[in-house]
Amino acid sequence: MSKPSFREGILAAGLQVMLRSGYEGASVRDICAAAGAPHGSFTNHFRSKEAFAGEVLDRYFAHTKEFVKKALDDKSLTPRQRLKRYLDIISGVLADDKWSRGCLIGDFSLETASRSGLLRERLEAIFQEWRALFAACIAEAQAAGEISPAFDPMDLAEFLLASWEGAILRMKVERGPAALDRFKNIVFQTIFKEQK
């Protein structure tokens, strides 16, 4: 009889530990303890903590894309309303965690991009895919005359994501929604202002 695999449990636990403690703060020992897995199981399934973190990022981004899909695929809303809907969904998720955790993609960008080529490349690929999803919705809003066509949709998507990630960082410091609310209010009254 073969031994049970702890791989999935380690990944699930690792995601939660890294959300709470970050990349540097999450030790392999802590991850295995949270998974109820022997320490040796980690090295049986993952060649390094860095490679493990890449898989955790993929898992986190897959979950994030579910929120993107929920908002941006909702054809009962206009494209501009869909963009706002995504920010509102994420605000709700962050509120459920009492403003104490942010976005793993943003956190890893700050913590690992200067030290890990593997994670930096993975983060760049994630941002490119993420940006493209928003750029398509922004282009649709521009074509519908909802928002100004003054800027390229890809540039606007980059601005949206980068600024939103910054607002999430401030939210973590302040432990409250003010930075998120401020960002949403300003961006939808300026850059994404509804055209008359």
UniProtKB/TrEMBL annotation:
<dbReference type="InterPro" id="IPR001647">
    <property type="entry name" value="HTH_TetR"/>
</dbReference>
<dbReference type="Pfam" id="PF16925">
    <property type="entry name" value="TetR_C_13"/>
</dbReference>
<dbReference type="InterPro" id="IPR036271">
    <property type="entry name" value="Tet_transcr_reg_TetR-rel_C_sf"/>
</dbReference>
<keyword id="KW-0804">Transcription</keyword>
<keyword id="KW-0238">DNA-binding</keyword>
<feature type="DNA-binding region" description="H-T-H motif">
    <location>
        <begin position="27"/>
        <end position="46"/>
    </location>
</feature>
<dbReference type="InterPro" id="IPR011075">
    <property type="entry name" value="TetR_C"/>
</dbReference>
<dbReference type="InterPro" id="IPR009057">
    <property type="entry name" value="Homeodomain-like_sf"/>
</dbReference>
<dbReference type="GO" id="GO:0003677">
    <property type="term" value="F:DNA binding"/>
</dbReference>
<feature type="domain" description="HTH tetR-type">
    <location>
        <begin position="4"/>
        <end position="64"/>
    </location>
</feature>
<keyword id="KW-0805">Transcription regulation</keyword>
<protein>
    <submittedName>
        <fullName>HTH-type transcriptional repressor DhaR</fullName>
    </submittedName>
</protein>
<dbReference type="Pfam" id="PF00440">
    <property type="entry name" value="TetR_N"/>
</dbReference>
